[in-house]
Amino acid sequence: MKGRGTLLTELNDRSREVFRRVVEDYLDSGEPVGSRTLSRTLSERISAATIRNVMQDLEYMGLLDSPHVSAGRIPTQHGLRMFVDGLLELGDLTEDDRSRINATLGSNERDVGTLLDRVGSALSGVTAGASLVLTPKHEAPIKHIEFVSLSPERALVVLVFADGHVENRVFTPPLGQTPSSMREAANFLNALAEGKTLSELRRVIEHEIKSRRRELDTLAAGMVESGLAIWENEGQPYERLIVRGRANLLGQAGEAEELERIRTLFDDLERKRDIAEFLELADEGDGVRIFIGSENKLFSLSGSSLVVSPYMNADRKIIGAVGVIGPTRLNYGRIVPIVDYTAQLVGKLLADRG
Q1: Number of domains in the chain
Q2: Among 52, 68, 86, where does a domain finish?
Q3: Which residues form the Heat-inducible transcription repressor HrcA C-terminal domain (predicted)?
């Protein structure tokens, strides 16, 4: 298969125009596009027979496909990628879309997690798709740590940060915990924690546990190690993934086959643990990226597309990402500027908050 750029340059003006119109009409309607429809709307007067010949050539090149016996064509994944890379015309962000996003981010909500949850809801509402928001870890220095027993099988770690932020996380403690072992674990951590962020504290604690295990009660050491796992979110650099607007995707499913693909997508969202790795865009630079169908390893079975952009802190370091997921026939020209604007706004907001 030739490269996308090579194929695009090989198309003459007529073939490029037919290809562009097939893709645009398909993205707009979701239906196969026929030669008679195109013959009535093309800028150049071309017969339906000539258009059919051009469409057959495009199909032979792997850019179009015939889903049924009918003469209508739809773009292949390869064709969509070529369209997005070389022919996509981005629209301007409408004032209505801008206002709806600004209204969410204009909130005085102090908790970043709650604010980003609202961003996800607004993004799914504006785009009529499902939104993804990957939230950053809280990196302020720690002021105090406390363990609270909830039951023999559950405990709570309370993290108080120097900037006033408080996080509560539930985890499974070692069996046989006692009030004294919980106090000992908290005292051990607080002696090390002051002035350190979570990522800095983890490295120090791992070293201290190894060197001072004999000084620690077995249960106290177990409490510290159990808590470490939940703090660091299994080693991921991000806090959590917020998914909003799933009902939008269900509402777009017109056939049983589409509904099954969306169910597969939901299963992927719940089951896959490598989504943070997938959304790690540090090596790719900033800007919006588009993943279509099987290009997206996370959603390869569901045939969905993802439009995603990282957002940065004041030091231009990528700390999270926002995106929209939907069927491959997304309105890319409208959604790309929405995702780009939202990512830039989130980054500025978090940078202003320090």
Answers
A1: 3
A2: 86
A3: 115-336
Same domain? For 267 and 125 the reply is yes
pLDDT above 70 (res 267): no
Q: How far apart are CA 242 and CA 338, in angstroms?
A: 18
Identify the pLDDT of residue 274. Answer: 47
Q: Do the Cβ atoms of 26 and 46 come closer than 8 Å?
A: no
Separation CA 156–CA 84 (nearest Å): 48
In a shared domain, residues 33 and 115: no
pTM of the model: 0.69
Token digits of residue 352: 């202003």
- Average pLDDT over every residue of 55-79: 86
Statement to judge: residues 114 and 192 lie in one domain: no
Q: Which of 189, 212, 231 is the last residue of a domain?
A: 231
Exposure of 40 by Cβ count < 10 A (0-12 exposed, 13-18 middle, 19+ buried)?
A: exposed
Instruction: Indicate whether 294 and 344 sit together in one domain.
Output: yes
Do 231 and 202 contact (CB within 8 A), yes or no? yes
State whether 222 and 286 are in the same domain. no
Expressed as residue numbers, the domain containing 218 is 142-231
Pick 162 or 274 by higher pLDDT: 162
Q: Strands (DSSP E) along 98-164, which ranges? A: 130-136, 142-151, 154-161
pLDDT at 334 over 60: yes
Look up the CATH number of the domain holding residue 302. 3.30.450.40
Cβ neighbors of 142 (< 8 A, separation 6 or more) are 159, 160, 161, 162, 193, 194, 195, 196, 197, 198, 201
Buried-exposed string 62-95: b where 16+ CB fall within 10 A, e elsewhere: ebbeeeeeebbbbbbbbbbbbbbeeebeeeebee
81 or 117: which leads in pLDDT? 81
Query: CA dist 323 to 4, 14, 91, 131, Å?
Result: 25, 35, 17, 6
Which segments within the chain are labelled E, that is strand?
A: 64-65, 74-75, 130-136, 142-151, 154-161, 166-171, 238-244, 289-292, 304-312, 318-327
